[in-house]
């Protein structure tokens, strides 16, 4: 089997597992309570992220099975879906944080906004690079795979809380709030490191997965450090003052 075929086959399975984990993680609070959500923002957010995850599975499977024309047509739909993911999630985060901010420690608000908004920046950059390199199948595929990694922590946080609560006790804290995303960060970084090593050993490539790993690691560092920076607190106050929700 050609090395690139291994990439497409494995990525299809990885994305399928990603979708399964997403459904399991959000089943108690969303999928099992579709008619009990507080307002339409929860549905827009849920639909947009679910569609993105399902699209990743479909696209990898279509390439693996040689259905490139359909792959391209669905890819064109991503020109709408990816910006929608960013815009809808930004509005959703604004709504959730703005309503909770008065009773939440400022450092926790700043931490959470770094966690969510910076993940969207990483996602948008990876997707933008995937589209920029759409005529280079290898780079395009690798950047599309990388779009999943900034989205790990909403899934891992919920899985830990439901199935591995002992980890909550050993997680670092910010003003008494456990920072469960550190476990998702470790998983994302480890998987990207494995992909980078595989790409070097098989293809002698040191490009996309290494760059994605550095970018994701920078995102993780920002989450764990920006809440200490006064300028970030000023940005958070400005963001929460915007009429986005």
Q: Can you describe this structure?
A:
- The chain contains 10 helices and 2 strands; from the N terminus they run αααααααββααα.
- Helix 1 (3-26) packs antiparallel against helix 2 and helix 1 (3-26) packs across helix 6.
- The chain is globular, with a radius of gyration of 18 Å.
- The N and C termini lie far apart (50 Å).
- With 245 residues, it is mainly α.
- The longest helix is centred in the middle third of the chain and has 33 residues, at 68-100.
- Helices cover 76% and strands 2% of the residues.
- The chain has a two-stranded antiparallel sheet.
- The chain has one domain.
- Summed up, the domain count is 1
User: What's the rounded overall pLDDT mean?
Assistant: 94
Number of strands: 2
Main-sheet strand order equals 1-2
The radius of gyration computed from the alpha-carbon positions, rounded to a whole number of angstroms, is 18 Å
Structural class: mainly alpha
Q: From N to C, what is the helix and strand string?
A: HHHHHHHEEHHH
- Uncertain stretches: none
The biggest beta sheet is recorded as:
2 strands, antiparallel
Figure out the total of helices.
10
Q: Which overall shape is indicated by the principal axes computed on the Cα atoms?
A: globular
Helix content: over 70%
Q: How big a fraction of the residues is strand? A: under 5%
Q: How many angstroms separate the termini?
A: 50 Å
